[in-house]
Write a structure and sequence with these properties.
12 helices, 6-stranded mixed beta sheet, alpha+beta, 5-stranded antiparallel beta sheet, OB fold (Dihydrolipoamide Acetyltransferase, E2P)
């Protein structure tokens, strides 16, 4: 549903309030801006190998200008070789400099519908460090070998000068735009996920879309096939990086615990409540893989699994405990979004040292102990602001419709009641309801709206 001009004013004021309440920075200090200008003028040196003749391309939302990743693919016998070029932010930002100190305070880029609060000043994140098309840019190229079974191995890491030969968009890309082997690479990564018991199931995202002229839409947007396929490139690289870091005895890892026995029993009760048949002898992983992907009860159950496992976090290398991410079912690190995520830059610098046979610099190793707290704070701030923006949009779009009745579908349940999805407008809300299961159709009445508090309340009517 599109918001009118009055609603636009309410959104603008509400988003400003979210930034103020959440302590989300809207600008950079003169010192940081000066450091960014100086860094942007820094030219790559001889240690950047010239790869500008290689046809790298990017694949992102059409409007993106902070481009972290470019790629090309080649065949090597039965193997597929992915050359994944990542923005060389570490060339511009050094540990302890003003840009780095500021990045530790921010940790991540915060995306709100009207504008971003970027991790680095735009002269870097949207300019000199971004892999924009038709210009030479410094990058760190990860060479990842993908076998026929989808397993990955890191063959090399190098600093290189590259050129993005085409800025491709998720919603407009065609197979002829992409390197040969793109589809097969995705198929292999997907097969490896299934073999590990880590199926990727993405859910429609509730999203606020900003249009020219300052108008907004509130929609549910399903993940495009091109996004899913592109995500496989990052996954392949990050799996290879995680394995290499662990073997080297250093690094920072993305971790998520397995579901414990008590929560496992609760999940069996949840499956039964959802009307899903989980044989007693079948493991949780096998049960997840057996579920039909087009059934809303599957989405509801997988959301329950995600909650039961607890949230993901970061952990430095520990020789007594192998880092593990239960949703990926592997040792996993993140190195592919350094323009938007602080810790990636440090992981990349460690990988450059490991690949060249050098010790990881002391300032990089030391940061691995400090980064988990910084990332947790930044992620929490960003997630809270993005959730509040959706709450605000729901309140704005529903203001004046108190008493109206809407068709909805139950998508989740818990001790707090049930969560229902209203298709028009695209709203997710919790209500008190009994004797309903995920996938059930219900009708709900809007009882109250408070734009200032960003709240809406519904009641079930049938």
């Amino acid at each position: 549903m599109r918001l009118d001009h009055d609603a636009h004013d309410a959104m603008r004021a509400g988003l400003d309030r979210i930034r103020d309440e959440g302590d989300i920075p809207e600008s950079f200090t003169p010192e940081v801006l000066a450091a960014a200008d100086a860094a942007a003028a820094r030219a790559p040196l001889d240690d950047h190998v010239d790869r500008t003749d290689v046809r790298f391309v990017t694949l992102d939302p059409e409007s993106s200008v902070d481009l972290d990743q470019a790629f090309t693919i080649e065949q090597a016998g039965a193997d597929i070789i992915l050359h994944y070029a990542i923005a060389d932010v570490g060339w511009f930002v050094r540990p302890g400099d003003p840009l780095d100190v500021e990045a530790f305070e921010r940790a991540v880029t915060v995306y709100l519908p009207d504008r971003r609060s970027t991790l680095y000043p735009p002269v870097l994140s949207e300019g000199a460090a971004s892999l924009l098309p038709d210009v030479d840019r410094p990058a760190v190229v990860f060479t990842v070998r993908v076998a026929t079974d989808g397993s990955t191995r890191l063959d090399g890491v190098e600093r290189a000068l590259i050129r993005n030969h085409a800025k491709l968009a998720y919603d407009a890309v065609s197979p002829s735009d992409l390197p040969a082997g793109f589809d097969e690479l995705h198929r292999r990564i997907q097969a490896d996920e299934e073999a590990r018991g880590a199926p990727r199931v993405e859910f429609p995202e509730q999203e606020i879309e900003r249009h020219d002229g300052g108008r907004y839409d509130l929609t549910f947007r399903p993940r495009l096939d091109s996004e899913e396929q592109n995500a496989a490139l990052s996954l392949a690289t990050n799996l290879a990086v995680g394995a290499a870091l662990y073997e080297a005895g250093t690094g920072l890892f993305r971790v998520m615990p397995e579901v414990d026995e008590g929560r496992h029993r609760k999940l069996r009760h949840s499956a039964r409540a959802f009307g899903l048949d989980w044989p007693s002898e079948m493991s949780l992983d096998a049960f997840e893989r057996s579920l039909p992907r087009d059934d809303p009860r599957t989405s509801a159950f997988l959301l329950a699994v995600r909650r039961a496992a607890g949230g993901a976090s970061y952990a430095p290398f520990d020789p007594d405990e192998r880092p593990w991410h239960s949703a990926v079912a592997a040792t996993y690190a993140q190195a592919t979004a350094p323009l938007r995520r602080l810790q990636d830059r440090y992981v990349i610098e460690a990988m450059l040292a490991i690949a060249s046979g050098r010790p990881v610099p002391a300032e990089i190793s030391a940061a691995f102990d400090e980064l988990p707290a910084a990332m947790a704070s930044g992620d929490q701030r960003a997630n809270r602001a993005e959730r509040q923006a959706l709450d605000l949009a729901e309140a704005v779009v529903l203001r004046g419709r108190e008493g109206d009745i809407f068709d909805a579908v139950v998508v989740d349940e818990g001790d707090w009641g049930v969560e229902v999805q209203i298709a028009d407008p695209a709203v997710l809300v919790r209500i008190a309801a009994r004797r309903v299961d995920p996938g059930d159709d219900v009708r709900v009445r809007l009882t109250s709206v408070d734009v200032d508090r960003r709240t809406v309340e519904f009641e079930r009517v049938s």
